C-alpha cells in the first residue's frame, strides 16, 4: 500500500491526494511538517519537500508532485488526467506549470508564509501589506480562470484533467487561509463549488489545522 508523506496545507500534497483518489489508488497519510524534516525524510527527498509517496514492499519512493502524478498516469489506467489529443495534453501541462509557478508564487505561497508559517514557526505577526497584495493578484488569476471556463467545459478542455486538480488544490489552500474573494468570479466559483462536491475532494474539506481555522464558507459545497 502506498503512503503519502504530506502536509495538510501543502497544495502539491493536495494535488497528489486528489489524483490518487480519482484513480482509486488506496493510500495512507503521514503528516510531515516541512520545517521538521529529519534525515530519514531527506533520504527520501533531498529537496526536503512534500509530497513524497512510498511503497515499502516494492521499494518505490517518488518525489515531486508532477513526477508523482505522471507516474500514476502511466501505471493506472483508470481516470486519465493528462488526456485527449497531443495538443490537449500539452495544454494540460502548460496550465499545470502556470498554476504551480504563477498562482502559487503570487498567491498561495505568500499566504502560507504570512498566515501559516509566521504563526506556527516564526512566531511573528503577518504583514498585512503582503496579504493584501496576494489577494489583489488572486483576482487576476481568477479572471483568467473565468475566461477559460467561459470557453471550455473544464479548465483545459472538454474533460476534467490534472489542470483542474492543480487549480483546485492551489485555490483550496488560499481559500482556507482567507485569501480568496469569490465575488465577481462566477465561472470559477461555480466550477470550484462543483469540484468540492467530488468524493476525491471531500476529505480535504474536513481537515483543520490546530490553530488556523478557515472562513465559514470554506467547506460549504454551494460556495
From TrEMBL:
GO terms for molecular function: transferase activity. Keywords: Transferase. SUPFAM superfamilies: GST C-terminal domain-like (SSF47616), Thioredoxin-like (SSF52833). Residues 85-218 form the GST C-terminal domain. It comes from the Bacteria. InterPro entries: Glutathione-S-Trfase_C-like (IPR010987), Glutathione-S-Trfase_C_sf (IPR036282), Glutathione_S-Trfase (IPR040079), Glutathione_S-Trfase_N (IPR004045), Thioredoxin-like_sf (IPR036249). Gene3D superfamilies: 1.20.1050.10, Glutaredoxin. Residues 1-80 form the GST N-terminal domain. This is Glutathione S-transferase family protein.
